[in-house]
Structure to design on (526 residues):
């Protein structure tokens, strides 16, 4: 069934302490830990595609042994339980050791095609990194992680995946609004899957503690396992690797911006070394276009992690990773802008270049343009400002724009993308003027209408995991009905297709959801 080859634990030093007690872990990249069994696990949903990646079929997924493994009640042959040790900058401040507090790795599997995947249970009990928390996860946040991982993948956004969603049959107590009213909520466990769950924070912690030999080992290991194409001397590989991390992160940011995704907690411990979207918590999808929108209630006042700032924050996070790598560069060269240090700086510059190029390519496609010209920046910026002022739905607007008859350039064609009639009327003249400019630009671009529509429909999803849709699925699941989870999973597998009978899943946010918790803002309590 699953073929394990656990390189992380084999090649990197582990914690000699066996007790599962909160502690600082030094001189090790991981600690052994056994998941804590749950009372009555049930498989609520699974992703067939992820199962197939792991060479698992429906029968395997339905087996009691698999349910045991996915709930943390037993280990399959070859599995090893461990939690990894990392730190991170949270909201701009160094936070010291964090680590997998409620994530337990089960090992690395290698499929028949030789692809390697780490399996990780989220919510399977405390680890040495749990501090005072319980190591569990609530059903609502587990549904959000499960569905969004898969939705992002099908939108073409690099992401960790979700194999399964298991209800634990146990309650978890959470104070959702941090207002002194804890309640018992159903618990769940997601099995996440990625080639690597290594984060920027893994390197930062070792650097902060001066554990430079181990830092070098982790870098060597990461390059060998996760970036095997990189070659050269140690120093050359380090530079090339950091370059690659910068480029992948840049591409990820352009993806988030193009689909309207806001991560919500871009701390350095939530940044994947592979440039994957990782750690789905209080994330959200932009409904009415607002660059300053953040779904995370903890971030409401500073808006550090709001929609439009994500690329800038990713860059800041890359600078923190660069700081962590500095101790590995030859000492004499540090004070000057010597070659290797300059190489790290050049990689960060490269981040800016790649991000801009990817952003322009993505938005050229969203606008139906064959290529991006310098003037298009202004056209897009003016559109963004209009969308912000008029509270236009981002996903709906771009999808409907493909239908525009450029001979008419009629604002009525975009009627459905507005949340408020008063704003629609107020901004109709501005939208009309913008559509005229846009139509002229399209005529100049000279693409046949059908071809333009086809590219636009590949670039502008009809279906995204709108915040209220996830919330509806959660509320039904909390009543014991998982039907909506399955429906959403199915719809989100084909986000760019018109799906007859499923138009309701592309409806813009209803009024009742505008200020409802879970639909507009979310807390970190998960
Ligand atoms: P996050 O904000 O989810 O990225 O988590 C930050 C840190 O807190 C990580 O070290 C997590 O593993 C840990 N953490 C969050 N929630 C829990 C929990 N319920 N139990 C144990 N550790 C947790
Ligand atoms: Mg995290």
């Amino acid at each position: 069934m699953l073929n394990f080859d656990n390189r992380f634990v084999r090649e990197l030093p582990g914690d000699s302490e066996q007790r599962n007690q909160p502690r600082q872990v030094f001189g090790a990249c991981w600690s052994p830990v056994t998941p804590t069994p749950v009372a009555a696990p049930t498989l609520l949903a699974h992703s067939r595609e992820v199962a197939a990646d792991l060479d698992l079929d429906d029968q395997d997924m339905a087996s009691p042994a698999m349910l045991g493994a996915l709930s943390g009640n037993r280990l399959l042959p070859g599995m090893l339980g461990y939690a990894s040790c990392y730190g991170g900058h949270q909201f701009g401040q160094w936070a010291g050791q964090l680590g997998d507090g409620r994530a337990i790795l089960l090992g690395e599997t290698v499929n028949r095609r030789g692809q390697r995947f780490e399996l990780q249970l989220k919510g399977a009990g405390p680890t040495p990194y749990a501090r005072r928390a319980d190591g569990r996860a609530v059903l609502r946040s587990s549904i959000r992680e499960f569905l969004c991982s898969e939705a992002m993948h099908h939108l073409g956004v690099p992401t960790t995946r979700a194999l399964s969603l298991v209800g634990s049959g146990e309650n978890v107590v959470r104070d959702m609004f941090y207002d002194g009213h804890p309640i018992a909520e159903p618990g769940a466990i997601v099995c996440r899957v990625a080639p690597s769950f290594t984060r920027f924070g893994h390197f930062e912690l070792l650097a902060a503690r001066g554990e430079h030999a181990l830092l070098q080992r982790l870098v060597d290991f990461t390059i060998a396992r996760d970036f095997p194409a990189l070659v050269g001397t140690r120093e050359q590989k380090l530079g090339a690797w950091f370059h690659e991390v910068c480029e992948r992160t840049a591409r990820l940011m352009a993806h988030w911006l193009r689909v309207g995704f806001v991560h919500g907690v871009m701390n350095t411990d939530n940044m994947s070394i592979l440039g994957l979207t990782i750690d789905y918590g209080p994330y959200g999808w932009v409904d009415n276009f607002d660059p300053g929108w953040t779904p995370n209630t903890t971030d409401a006042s500073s808006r550090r992690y709001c929609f439009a700032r994500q690329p800038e924050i990713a860059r800041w996070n890359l600078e923190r990773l660069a700081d962590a790598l500095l101790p590995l560069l030859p000492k004499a060269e540090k004070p000057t802008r010597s070659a290797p240090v300059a190489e790290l700086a050049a990689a960060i510059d490269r981040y800016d270049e790649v991000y801009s190029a990817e952003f322009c390519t993505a938005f050229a496609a969203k606008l139906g343009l064959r290529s991006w010209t310098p003037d298009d920046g202004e056209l897009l910026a003016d559109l963004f400002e209009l969308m912000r002022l008029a509270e236009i739905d981002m996903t709906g607007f771009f999808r409907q724009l493909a239908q525009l008859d450029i001979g008419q350039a009629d604002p009525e064609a975009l009627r459905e993308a507005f949340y408020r009639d008063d704003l629609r009327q107020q901004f109709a003249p501005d939208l009309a003027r913008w559509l005229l400019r846009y139509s002229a630009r399209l005529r100049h671009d000279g693409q046949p209408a059908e071809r333009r529509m086809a590219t636009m429909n590949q670039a502008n999803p009809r279906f995204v995991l709108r915040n209220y849709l996830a919330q509806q699925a959660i509320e039904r699941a909390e009543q014991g009905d998982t039907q909506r989870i399955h429906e959403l999973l199915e719809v989100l597998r084909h986000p760019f297709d018109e799906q007859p009978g499923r138009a309701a899943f592309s409806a813009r946010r209803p009024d009742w959801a505008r200020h409802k918790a879970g639909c507009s803002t979310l807390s970190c309590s998960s």
